[in-house]
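Table S7 (text form). Paired inputs.
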Amino acid sequence: MHISSIESWLNQVVAPDPVQQAFARKRKASDARIVMGVSSPPQSIASAPDYDPDATPRAGESSKRRKAADGRKVNVGVPLDLRQVKATHDGTTSLPPSTTSSTTGGSTTGGSTTGGRSNKSKRRVKDMGDLELAEKPVRQVTHLKREEEYPQDIRALLKNVRDVRRGIGILPRPVADQARKLLNIVDEPLEADNNLYDKNIWAVPGLQDSLDWDINFELKVLEKVMERTETCITENVSEPSWNSRVHEPLLDMALEPFSRIVGHWDVTKAVIEKDYVLPSGPGIDLQSKMVDFCLTLSDNDVMRAAKMRLRPSNRRMINHTEYQALRFRPISISIETKTPDGSTQEARAQLSVWTTAYMARLRELAGTPTGALDITLPILTVRGGQWELSFIIDKADGIDMVTLPPIADTRSIVDCYKVVALIRWLAVWSATVFRKWIMDRALAQRST
């Protein structure tokens, strides 16, 4: 718009009485378009020349604000005082000085940054080093050498895990010949008698005295898991695809004999209650980290005790999350999965934040909110098809995360059976050691 056109229009407009102007209603956007000579509908934000469809919306930034050529923001649909619009030498117009905070060097006056983000935003946790800055630090510990260095409550489990890594007691005797036909050239031959087992080695006296499942169907499932592991690697699929195509069927099959006492859940939507997030050091944000799966105690006696324990309290869940499936089923094992090229450090950090928050809830239930928790919590990290077992040990001066060497990789049928055996020994530990502790310490009724 040229200056001569503006001056000609202004000469034809009668200025309103000052008193009336003070009380005049705000001009509607449609009126402004008539005054400006705009006959077409207003341009939408999505069609604006400066619109970026991939830009992240920023807090405090209205969707009805656009940037002018000089970088300042202008309210769309709010009429301008044309007397303040100046024409430039090239026929374009320049905007009047802004009445709001101006932008200088990327920050606004008053100390806040453009878009309302604080200069002191916290950095998200990406590795275990960040957790050493927490109020109660989480420390990585390489696998301990001697049995007596481990807590008493996991020593029997450790012995069973050691046997699994060596291929002892991993293959059902009736399908041994069929399984051997699926071996790769680098697989263990599974020729020793101690590679085989009878069904009831995982029986839980008093809860499940005998176990029964279809071992022929199990072999077919594990063969499919092995094939899908290779496919997921080749096709570079996403983490959710790994979960649904490989890990979920494997967990289903492994826990089939324990269906009445131990279950598993996809908990990718379960969020930590903020009261239980570990307090962090300066500049570190221990946000509500989520994990992928949990093993839980699911028998009727445990769930009944959980509900009874909650009735006199103001809490609505027995764990550290209000996710429906976990409200009355105590978590025994937590599992975080990653793709083959995913970060192991990030997976361990996620598990650490999740599990230390759970420990805070268990301390609260056990009546020892400031002391060390006298139960060890096993956790599993799965990276692609590789399974790794760690233990979270609560101490007075911090929390130790002890990680064992990788157990198995589901790219081979032998290792598929190893993972199944590992999960079943963890289920036995859950239904015996952990169940006794939580019934005696966390779910016991307390006098008020």
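Next pair, protein 2 of 2.
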Amino acid sequence: MIYNWMAQGFIESSNQNEELEDIGESYFDELVRRSFIEISEEGEGLFKMHDLVHDLAQFVASSECLTIKSTTKSIPERVRHVNFDSSLHKGFPRPLLEVKKLRTIHMGSGFGSIIPSEILNFRFLRVLVFFGLNFKVPSSIGDLKHLSLFCLARNRGAKTLPESFGRLEVLECLELVSFPSCVRHLTALKELKVAYCINLVTLSESFASLTSLRMVEIINCPKLFLPEGIDRVPIVKINGRELHRHGLIRSTVESSSDDWRTIGVTIQDHQNEQDV
């Protein structure tokens, strides 16, 4: 959620030495402290709202946030953030094309197997989320110059990303099913999440160019070796568990077991190699 705030420009810093992520975390903690949101016990990274708070949020944001369903007949001109309901099977709603300043699109399973080319008409898009779909990412994705958060999760059709993807000027959160070489151009990347890449062996030499990384998360990548330089990343998570190990040079994940001792992370330093 913090990266969504950052992508939309909701977080600003008056101190050049203060990271936007840290400011966002303080905002989040304040919302929790005031009981506007609660941490959910159902899984890591989930939270919930009281019904009254949720109703108030919906009322306040009703003109800018919209869930598009098969029954949706009109779309407010001021809408900025849209979510496509899984019941939507009739293709891209034409009235949405009249919205000139759309900032966010969330599209999940049930929409179809072809990414709507109309999405590329929204030049001001900052957040683009595809979840559980089955299509290739179009080469023109690199034309979305304002895109700041891109999520491509459980997309069976996207084996890699086009080289034009690397032309994006600002991208601070990335969730991939494979690791393309063009990522080396994304020097502003703050968070990298690689999930369900069962045949992915390496993150390639591109990793060394990602000098702004603050967190790397690996989920169910049984053959993956982490590259040199992983030790400079403040937070490294593997299958939900965070590694705090100085001098980490190279690791591999061999199991997705819930038992930490059987995950099979191999830590190799200059002198020896040991299993955790």
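The radius of gyration is 20 Å.
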